[in-house]
């Protein structure tokens, strides 16, 4: 379906020099493959997609789509855009048109389809992304997730063979991410060829049949998600996918700002798209601090989240102590019950620093 050979895109620097945003990248994508593209910010992921969709022209190299050289001067780009759709981070819906109007616009104005035929096809496509009842709504009245699904429908209605997704959920509230990912999973199940730039590691692993890891403009690894995520060959890949997101607090006295800490925990959960874990984490921390209120020993708190496997731990160290506050005879029974109910597992260890409790959330 797609063959890229020695693809390079250079940009001119302010000092007059140049830098390769993508550098000598080669790969093949077969029909029906779903490729997740991961890597650090600035590694060239979006530039690669833009070159494939000819939104940016590569400096050198070759791109074949269904055997045709799309970089050839004689190649009609309109033909490429019939085969290949692009879904951006931002929704880019026309605010003065209804959802239906946004979707039928290209059908009637570019492809000269009859109004009634375009409307029928658009409604069918909206139903495919569960938005048929929003056909006459204005974009401003939709949620972010609904707007992105409308943008996907606008691409689907043109019946592309390939769709390029550039961080399609990055502009969404975390509570809306799942609905867009659900549509993309249906497209993958239907056999749509897709290349997806995403920073959501679990989604990248679960939806794809192949994964690319880009680093500093180079395609460092290309393999199945199982190979890339379970047995990466390059140290840069291992470092990237094994990142653990961590939030730390050190409480040395009862004068600490409890409300600021809770606010930071909530922001952490939103930033890393785990809103469902917000309540368990805040309840565990709050009730543990209640149990520790009668003791003067310092307390350290960590929230650790692995984006790869979705596991979150709350680690609380009661410094200088040897007995778990959950096991003390004077422990508040209601607080202990809430804590145990909010955690799927609790591990207790005695360390030189004190008693350490790890809560699985």
Structure description:
With 361 residues, the chain is α/β, with parallel strands linked by helices. The protein folds into two domains: 2-241, 3-Layer(aba) Sandwich (Rossmann fold), CATH 3.40.50.300; 244-360, Histidine kinase-like ATPase, C-terminal domain (Heat Shock Protein 90, 2-Layer Sandwich), CATH 3.30.565. It contains twelve helices and 15 strands. It has a six-stranded mixed beta sheet, sandwiched between helices. Strands 11-12-13-15-14 form a five-stranded antiparallel beta sheet, with helices on one face. A hairpin with a 2-residue loop joins strand 4 (60-65) and strand 5. Helix 4 crosses helix 5, helix 5 (144-156) packs parallel to helix 6 (177-189) and helix 11 runs antiparallel to helix 12. It starts with a strand and ends with a strand. The model has no long low-confidence stretch (mean pLDDT 90).
């Amino acid at each position: 379906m797609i063959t890229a050979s020695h693809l390079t895109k250079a940009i001119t620097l302010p000092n007059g020099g140049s830098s390769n945003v993508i550098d000598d990248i080669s790969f093949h994508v077969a029909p029906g493959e779903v490729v997740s593209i991961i890597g650090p910010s600035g590694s060239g992921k979006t530039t690669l997609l833009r070159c494939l969709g000819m939104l940016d022209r590569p400096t050198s190299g070759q791109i074949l789509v269904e055997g045709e050289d799309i970089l050839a001067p004689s190649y009609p780009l309109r033909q490429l855009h019939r085969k290949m759709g692009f879904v951006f981070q931002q929704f880019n819906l026309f605010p003065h048109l209804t959802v239906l109007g946004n979707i039928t616009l290209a059908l009637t104005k570019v492809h000269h389809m009859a109004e009634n035929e375009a409307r029928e096809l658009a409604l069918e496509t909206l139903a495919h992304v569960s938005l048929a009842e929003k056909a006459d709504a204005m974009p401003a009245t939709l949620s972010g997730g609904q707007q992105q699904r409308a943008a996907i429908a606008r691409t689907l209605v043109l019946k592309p063979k390939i769709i390029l997704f550039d961080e399609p959920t990055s502009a969404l509230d975390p509570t809306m991410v799942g609905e867009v990912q659900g549509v993309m999973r249906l497209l993958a199940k239907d056999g749509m060829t897709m290349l997806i730039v995403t920073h959501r590691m679990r989604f990248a692993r679960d939806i794809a049949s192949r994964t690319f890891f880009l680093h500093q403009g180079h395609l460092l690894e290309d393999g199945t998600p199982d190979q890339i995520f379970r047995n990466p060959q390059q140290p840069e890949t291992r470092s990237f996918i094994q990142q653990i997101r961590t939030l730390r607090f050190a409480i040395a006295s009862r004068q600490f700002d409890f409300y600021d800490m809770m606010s930071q925990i909530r922001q952490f959960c939103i930033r890393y798209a785990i809103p469902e874990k917000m309540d368990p984490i805040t309840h565990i921390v709050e009730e543990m601090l209640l149990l520790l209120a009668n003791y003067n020993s310092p307390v350290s708190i960590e929230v650790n989240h692995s984006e790869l496997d979705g596991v979150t731990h709350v680690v609380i160290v009661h410094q200088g102590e040897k007995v778990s506050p959950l096991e003390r005879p004077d422990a508040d029974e209601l607080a202990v019950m809430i804590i145990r109910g909010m955690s799927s597992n609790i591990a207790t260890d005695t360390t030189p620093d004190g008693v350490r409790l790890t809560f699985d959330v």
